[in-house]
Specification:
Layout: E1 3-9, E2 13-20, E3 25-33, H1 39-48, E4 58-64, H2 67-74, E5 80-85, H3 89-94, H4 97-100, E6 105-108, E7 111-112, E8 118-120, H5 124-134, E9 140-145, H6 153-165, E10 170-172, H7 173-176, H8 182-212, E11 219-222, E12 228-230, H9 231-236, H10 244-257, E13 262-267, E14 272-278, E15 281-282, E16 290-291, E17 294-295, E18 303-306, E19 312-316, E20 322-328, E21 330-331, H11 332-338, H12 341-354, E22 363-366, H13 377-385, E23 391-392, H14 393-399, H15 411-415, E24 419-423, H16 426-432, H17 441-454, H18 459-482, H19 485-491, H20 496-505, E25 523-526, H21 530-540, E26 545-546, H22 554-561, E27 564-577, E28 580-588, E29 591-595, H23 598-619, E30 622-634, E31 647-658
Parallel strand pairs: 1-4, 4-11, 5-6, 5-9, 9-10, 13-25, 21-24, 25-26
Antiparallel strand pairs: 1-2, 2-3, 7-8, 11-12, 13-14, 14-15, 14-18, 16-17, 19-20, 22-23, 22-24, 27-28, 27-31, 28-29, 30-31
Helix pairs in contact: 1-8, 2-8, 5-6, 10-22, 12-17, 16-17, 16-18, 18-20, 18-21
């Protein structure tokens, strides 16, 4: 038997799935709550919930994780020294490098030109001094040369020196991207170096859990484009794991449904992710992934993420208008399941509401240790009040003598992740209406009754309205995803066009004409709540919906069914002189090569690119490759229709299956 074990850590749940590679089927799955303060705990709990399988049958383990994405957004990570060669100080100021890169950097002489020629020798004496001054207080180094993608010789020399003298991990800009944007490349290298200690700790914990279960299979990690890389490579390039969870869901949706061209909509507890698939692969974001305020050169799937999920917080404003999300809340049914005492407090809230007093059904609880974070007096009082467990905001306000729960000032405690909010969610509404019974149904019923009473609404009617609003919001997001970015921003600034198109999809009638819309691609619905909401949205969009078996663990399935993929870009450029083309040069991973004739340059570029893509794919843990070569010629025309050859770009990709443990 050949089984693969996929693991995905999402915002709410950690999923595990076992796939039979021989029959292309899912044979087991399990879910556990994600432990955000220590992701490994949730992973271990999910693994222990799986049916017992002979460890020797597990031939591959794959992990998709939110760790890198969360660490970047929250500003966490190791201590990094960034060394920049050939950068001009004014350029860094103009591009706001200090804001783009949250690590200290040093400038060093040494530069290559646009065509890969050395224009300034490398100052190794400065490199030696920097390493001597920083080694004791640095976890990893990042090295970026201004034109290193045209000639990486200086970066390689510095990397070898630091590895020998300091014994620290070293990340080079040219290893992560072939993009010419030197500032974004430097930021990518710095963020990558910062993530190395963080991912190392997680992979060590996962490997420990696998050892406890007797699983000795290779461990691979999902990249942001949905492909896989070996554990060793992930430790060197952890930044490539950003957005790996949404990418894994797209791959898992394709595997479970068998659809090559489709719209995969993954609705989880925290977010809804929407991806377009062509020929079985998600589209990539050409400008690179953006996480929080940081723009990177990392290739990632082009996925639209909306703050809408089964655990989206339902609340009202002063005008008694109901809104759903984007903030997440712990469902009250789950809170009462974990803390049974909450139910008694909710009954007190009901009684208090019945005698005409305003109440809030939201609760607050500690989420992680304080660990030296300074708190304001009011925050300190709230923190101490939560020492014994979750407490309703109504009770907190009463105990702390605040005139209203909004005057408790809990926003900073929540934004720092110290406290977590629980409240009414779509998951609670499903429980209250009897359509889903997994946690504490009574807590959800009480919350919906109190919530509805505060806006003078019937609980059941309000619940139905909320459940109708969720697929509507999903439909709007699907339209916003399907429209080309340029068209959407040029014609309808903001997100208004998605709402407009949704209205038309319902068959809106005007005085003189009717308007209807139809989405051509099928929707593959994955994620735990997807089967509840996506069929309604698909009906309105006039397309078919597929809710495949094991849709609730599609992320974990996608984690273990992806391919190992590595791409290399080779650039052929003409050397122009006043009398015409004097020759050609090729720029690639091995530097710069010159040629007299174009056919020779093109042949070399493809051969060298294939070899490098194959090497990288094998190094990342792949085998049995399929090669793809995309060629784009740059030859603009003038007004008379004459072309001027400038160059050719070859994008060469090696796609293989992950290397598995040997039988026996």
């Amino acid at each position: 038997m050949r089984y693969g074990l996929g693991i995905d850590t999402g915002g709410t749940y950690t999923d595990a799935a076992v796939v039979d590679f021989e029959h292309h089927t899912v044979v087991a799955s399990a879910k556990a709550l994600t432990t955000r303060h220590h992701l490994a705990d949730g992973i271990i709990e999910a693994l222990r919930a799986l049916p017992l399988l002979p460890p020797a049958h597990i031939r591959l383990v794959s992990l998709s994780t939110t760790l890198a994405t969360n660490a970047i957004v929250e500003g966490q990570g190791g201590r990094v020294c960034l060394i920049l060669m050939g950068y001009e100080p004014k350029l860094l100021e103009d591009f706001g490098l200090r804001e783009m890169i949250p690590v200290p950097y040093r400038l060093v002489a040494g530069k290559h030109g646009l065509f890969g020629e050395e224009v300034e020798s490398l100052d190794m004496q400065s490199i030696a001094r920097i390493v001597e001054e920083t080694a004791a207080e640095t976890d990893a180094y990042a090295v970026s040369g201004y034109f290193s993608v045209r000639n990486p010789a200086h970066e390689r020399e510095v990397k070898a020196y630091i590895a020998e003298r300091a014994g620290r991990p070293v990340v080079c800009g040219h290893e992560l991207t072939s993009e010419l944007n030197s500032v974004k490349r430097a930021a990518t290298a710095a963020l990558n170096a910062r993530l190395i200690p963080t991912l190392k700790e997680l992979l060590r914990a996962v490997r420990h859990a696998l050892d406890e279960m007797g699983i000795q299979a290779p461990l691979v990690v999902v990249k942001g484009d949905g492909s896989l890389m070996a554990e060793r490579v992930a430790l060197e390039r952890p930044i490539e794991t950003i957005l790996s969870g949404p990418a894994a869901s797209a791959i898992g949706g394709q595997f479970l449904s068998g659809e090559e061209d489709c719209i995969v909509v993954d609705m989880g507890g925290t977010t809804t992710d929407i991806a377009l698939l062509n020929r079985g692969l998600p589209r990539l974001r050409p400008e690179g992934a953006t996480v929080g305020p940081w723009k990177t050169s990392v290739q990632a799937a082009d996925i639209r993420t909306a703050g809408l999920g089964g655990d989206s917080h339902i609340r009202t404003d002063r005008l008694r208008q109901v809104s759903i999300g984007p903030r997440r809340a712990v469902p009250l049914c789950l809170l009462a399941h974990q803390y049974p005492g909450v139910l008694s407090e909710m009954e007190l809230l009901r009684d208090r509401f019945h005698i005409g007093k305003a109440v809030s059904t939201d609760f607050l609880m500690r989420a992680k240790k304080l660990e030296g974070v300074p708190l304001a007096p009011r925050e300190e009082a709230v923190w101490e009040a939560l020492a014994e467990g979750p407490c309703s905001l109504t009770s907190l306000a009463s105990r702390l003598k605040a005139a209203h729960p909004s005057l408790l000032y809990t926003e900073r405690l929540e934004s720092l992740g110290l406290a977590a909010r629980a409240g009414l969610t779509p998951t609670d509404v499903l429980h209250a209406l009897g359509r889903y019974r997994h946690w504490n149904e009574k807590a959800s019923t009480l919350a919906l009754r109190i919530f509805a009473g505060q806006i003078n609404a019937d609980p059941e009617i309000l619940g139905e309205r909320i459940l109708e609003a969720v697929p509507e919001k999903i439909g709007v997001e699907i339209f916003n995803k399907l429209l080309p970015d340029g068209y959407r921003s040029a014609v309808f600034p903001g997100e208004g066009i998605g709402s407009l198109l949704w209205e038309q999809s319902l068959g809106k009638r005007f005085d003189e004409f009717d308007c209807t819309l139809k989405v051509h691609k099928p929707i593959v619905a994955v994620g735990a709540p997807a089967g509840t909401y996506l069929p309604v949205a698909a009906q309105k969009l006039r397309t078919r919906v597929i809710v495949p078996p094991f849709a609730e663990v599609a992320n974990a399935v996608g984690a273990v069914t992806g391919s190992v993929m590595r791409s290399v870009t080779m650039q052929v450029e003409a050397v122009w002189t006043p009398v015409g083309i004097a020759g050609y040069f090729v720029v690639g991973a091995d530097g710069r090569e010159e040629f007299e004739h174009l056919p020779e340059a093109l042949a070399y570029a493809e051969e060298a690119g294939r070899a490098e893509a194959l090497r990288q794919m094998q190094d990342a843990g792949g085998e049995n490759p399929e090669m793809r070569v995309e060629t784009r010629q740059h030859a603009p025309q003038n007004a008379e229709g004459q072309t001027t050859y400038l160059g050719t770009t070859l994008h060469i990709t090696a796609i293989g299956r992950p290397r598995m443990a040997a039988e026996g």
